[in-house]
TrEMBL record:
It holds the Pfam family ZnuA. SUPFAM superfamilies: Helical backbone' metal receptor. Keywords: Metal-binding, Signal, Transport. One of its GO terms (molecular function) is metal ion binding. It comes from Hyperthermus butylicus (strain DSM 5456 / JCM 9403 / PLM1-5). GO terms for biological process: metal ion transport. This is ABC-type metal ion transport system, periplasmic component. The keyword tRNA-binding does not apply. It is found in: Cell envelope. Its main location: other.
Amino acid sequence: MSRLVAAIAATLVLVAASFTAYTILSRGGNWTSSKNQGLIVVVSFPNLIDDIRQIVCSDDTVYSLAPPGVDPHSYQLTLRDYELLRRASIVVSTGHAPFETALAEKASSDKLIVIPDILREHGGRILVNPDTGKLNLHIPIYNPYNYRIFIGYLGERLAELRPSCAEVYRSNVAKVLERLNNITTVAPQLNVTAVGSTPSIQYAVEWLGIHVVKLLVREHGVGTSTEDLAEVKRLFEAGKAKLAVVMVLENGKPATPADEKLAELAEEYGIPILRVPAPYMAGSVLDKLEAVVAEARNLKG
């Protein structure tokens, strides 16, 4: 009997270890990262992983708290997350999801980078939500000029934390900024008023001269009201909004029901549609900005 118990216990240990390894791998890290000398970078949203990986050293590791496929706005910190925060060299937060309030309390201030705060301190632009009149904190680094500030700041912080890799960080940042410059150089100015689907698209298009005057969904977690639908129709009918901006997934389909509805309304009223990659899907901001610029250039003709 004792041998059977021992065998069962050993099996359970192996299963637990396998599950833990799978969890870490699925969150963007690797099982050996805690044993190497690289930095541990923890991000709040999984879409930030690709942006951070562009500039880190090869033995640095990037983890996401909220896993892919889960709405970060409804995510809650776990015991595993608390352990990650304890081990982290640096923590990057978007500063607007509910769980990030708890994150700010658990992560030491010298480790924490809150993106909107960094942008405010270094001349970035935080837009105003046209419907609520409040600051829009949904992915401000979808704006290339804000992205430049963020990547440059993060690269310097990493260099301070790990001087032996400073040249690599700065070289990688320079490559990112060169690519970013190539994107903005060919970007058109559309100079048009638009209706957007959700707050997440505002930063992706305002820098292209697209002034978002109305959002179909004014804030995350708030449904589309009959009043909002009626207002969008009035704007289209009166010619006060000449473009619809919708988010799409990798397959080109609308990212949310609001995007689908806005596309339907635009087609009904003969309004051109600018499709932008959803900010929370995989891929760096650079990848998404390239797609936005390509769409904008096609639209301008």
